[in-house]
Amino acid sequence: MNRIRKLDHLLSRLRERLFLSLDCDVPLVFRQASSGERAAVALENREGWTPVSRDLVWGEPDGYYWFGGSAILPAEAEGRRIVCRVEAAFGSVMGRCDPQCLVRVNGRIQQGVDGNHREFLLTNCGSEGEQFDILIEAGTIEDRRQLGFALQMQVHDLEVENLYYDLRVPLDVARLLKEDDPRRHFILGRLNAAIDVLDLRPGNDARFQASVAAAREVAAAIYQAVDFEEKPVIVATGHTHIDVAWLWRVRETRQKMARSMATALSLMQDFPDYQFMYNQCVLLDYLREDYPELFSRIDAEVKTGRFEIEGALWLEPDVNITGGEALVRHILYGVRYHQKTFDVRPRMIWLPDTFGYSAALPQLMAKSGLDSFVTHKLSWNDTNRMPNETMFWQGIDGSKVVAYFLTTQPYDAQTYNTTYCPNLKPTHVMGTWRRHGQQDVNSELFLVYGHGDGGGGPTREMLHNIRRMEQGIPGCPTVKHAPMRPFFEGLIGRMQANPERYPVWVGELYAEFHRGTLTSVAKNKRHNRKAEIELRELETLAVMAQVETGAAYPAEALRALWDIVMLNQFHDILPGSSIGAVYDDSDVDYARFFHEAGLLKQSLLSGLPCASDVAVFNATARARSGLICDDQSFAAKAEQVLVGADGKTRFAAIVKDVAPLALAEPAIVVVADDRLSVSVQHLSNGLVSVRFDDAGRITAMVDAKTGRDVLPRGALANRLQAFRDMPAQFDAWDIDDDFEDQIFEIDQLVSAEVVETGPLRAAIRFEWAYESSRLVQVVSLLAGARQVEVETFIDWHEHNTLVKAAFPLAMNAASVDAEIQFGHVKRATHRNTSWDRARFECSMQRWVDMSEPDFGVALLNDCKYGYDAKGTELRLTLLRSPTYPWPEADQGEHHFRYALFIHDGDKNAVHHAAEDFNMPLRLLRGAASPVAADVSATPLIEVKTKSITLEAVKKAEDDDGVIIRLWETTGARQSAHLVPDARFKTATIVDLLEEGGEAFVIGADGLTLTFMPFEVITLKLSR
């Protein structure tokens, strides 16, 4: 008989004796409760609760049910380890369980229960008649019904459990070794001998237990055997990845966190060698609010070293769409939280599950004292395998950090895909080494293990597996159950000592997968962009109020707003890959954000000195002129009514030379330029001339300065195109490379009319019909601008459809530059290599630009993040409408703007245009009683060097200093001249955590700083 088949069968029989039923279920009562009743239900006396019967039907999406009962131990429990097993219709969908439970025994949180963790401990030494009060909260997510719920008391035999894993783990190693490997035959021989000692006959427990002990002695020879001395080492740390929201709401995640942490703490009682790591501050803080008892126990285990805190970010955000300053805050607030709460300084960016990684990250890490970056997601690439897993990662500024890609997968995997949530078995340990492509460089690797997303993290089985592999099994890599940080400190030390042995990856880590996340659920992208800008302006106003009047800086209110924004930047919320209820919640969040931001802004304005109760606010560090808009008339002859794509109107006027970072009285000027000309087929302002065809598409766009038509001869621009968008999998996540197989021109023009004739702007309104949807655009030219603006309103009612706006350009260019956080990257527009072909949908922040040395066209946007560029055609991705996991994604109204900006090859001009497009001069009403105008016009700081831009102004975290964050925009070394407000006497260059640096005196004419290409410098100004 095949020995492996025999051993598998007999071990399955042995496993049946790990838990022996006492044949006495626990009578239960239950009731349903809302999430808001949780605290009250836990204290109820359960009178009036419904008895649980065998045919109980319960469960609903987003439901909570409470089961209570009293367990009384029978005589057979005397002196035995007694557990309760939960019997429920557990389901598993994409790694998570349903239902998921939190168990209290005698009022104390015991652990989480799910399909992977079904038993919970009552006592290690039972006594007849001993009684335990049990209360279980069960949460259900799926749209299915549960049948029955029961608790069964069982004897848990630890000796049998130990023997089972003594035999099972080496058997799992042996089955993966080659047929001619002598270690395979050695292991199978010892296992066969051990199993033949085991007496499985029923009726005599003493005889059985004696055979268990004897079988363990025989099996011990496996762990004592001498194997190859230079075996690879795999360091293993327990973990559970918990998506803050995805196929469930944030409020359910708070419960997932409690269940998972309770389970981890429970396992630590039985496995003193257990090492567990967690990282997301936001969920730890929710746990502190919701379950202080669990939080206190975690804090105690952090001090013992068994519960490791690592990972510097507030949560695991999307890092393509999230803005630069927001990424800084994720690091700043994350590191400070862990330091303040646990006295731990994290050093790592832990992002195993995010959909691509911005080339801005290495600099942000280096300037925050972070030394390592870990992911596995690029193993999901659909076209190319990343050539290395251990490397230096170099960002756009030249900063280098250590990057490590997890290589865990089953030993016999036929794909490159790896995992960070294995149900750890020998196959994963052996597969981690087999999958690693740099075996000549690294002999020590790292893995994390444990079920994620409500699967409860590591299990007893995983911990037993690790214990056996730690002892040593021939043919299996050496396993160390250890914390994460020492592994990475060792790796970093080896890489720094011998950098020539390790490759350098330069630029972004582009994920060849999940490209649709740059566009799905467009409303959240728009809210995110607007909220980031609102926070920048609020913090600037708050610092102005502090400096000008000594007003208290509203740190708590601002942090509350940041918490809303950061939460909704989670990598399944902002990318648009969650269920509809998540976006119902985010709608509420953003409504609260903008309401509270508005109140705070009015409060700040009421205390700021200004020459008028109506003020113009310039939130940049350079003097600006431009358009201001308001719902009320300016009562000035030079004003104009602007017509929006949604039919709404606003009053507009032009103001000039508004001081940087200051409030100023609106000094409206008359525009004397009379070159505006418009009809339904043309727009012109003397600098740019645009012509349209009968379908509303652009047929020519001529730059008067150069005489060049921006478009190739015969080409059409601002072509609205619809594409079949039915990816083979991951609907909300993916755009497949065959999306162009079906292209539908949106060219059914319903109407075209001139809606503005000047004096400030000329505009044409176009309306198209497409299937059941309506698209409206107002295309406009401002007097004196080399920029055509397109304001868009779409009432969308299609599904599985991708919409782009196409702009073919008359350019000799093989690449584009796309803005990312704190800089830009160059990407090829040809398809020479498989890497080029895979980049058929890419990310940007505010602009993408195609240029020749002295001429270029930039496509600006106010809330879009996806584009494609092939040859010399740019296409802005406007919206998608996936149907999974939210069937109604992107249905309804959309509002956004984009623009074509003509320039002379100057990236600094592109940056300023994009900044002005996203952060126009603001007209603010509600300033304090008028005072002298020269007081209000004093800028906090003025940047005299054009290619140095301001990213943030805020109060320092630990004192009354003012933080000024600046960066270089063109990718060139710069000597920058800065002029702070004269009340600031000293300046300190600090890191992104606002630490370090020596203070120096600010000169009478300001100060000069040297910037490296794309460098971010954080300056602290003090009085």
From TrEMBL:
Keywords: Coiled coil, Glycosidase, Hydrolase, Metal-binding. Residues 521-548 form a coiled coil. Gene3D superfamilies: 2.60.40.2220, Glycoside hydrolase 38, N terminal domain, Glycoside hydrolase family 38, central domain, Golgi alpha-mannosidase II, domain 4. The keyword Oxidoreductase does not apply. Residues 512-590 form the Glycoside hydrolase family 38 central domain. Pfam families: Alpha-mann_mid, Glyco_hydro38C2, Glyco_hydro_38C, Glyco_hydro_38N. GO terms for biological process: mannose metabolic process; oligosaccharide catabolic process. InterPro entries: Gal_mutarotase_sf_dom, GH38_C, Glyco_hydro/deAcase_b/a-brl, Glyco_hydro_38_C, Glyco_hydro_38_cen, Glyco_hydro_38_cen_sf, Glyco_hydro_38_N, Glyco_hydro_38_N_sf. GO terms for molecular function: alpha-mannosidase activity; carbohydrate binding; metal ion binding. Belongs to the glycosyl hydrolase 38 family. This is Alpha-mannosidase. It comes from Rhizobium oryziradicis.
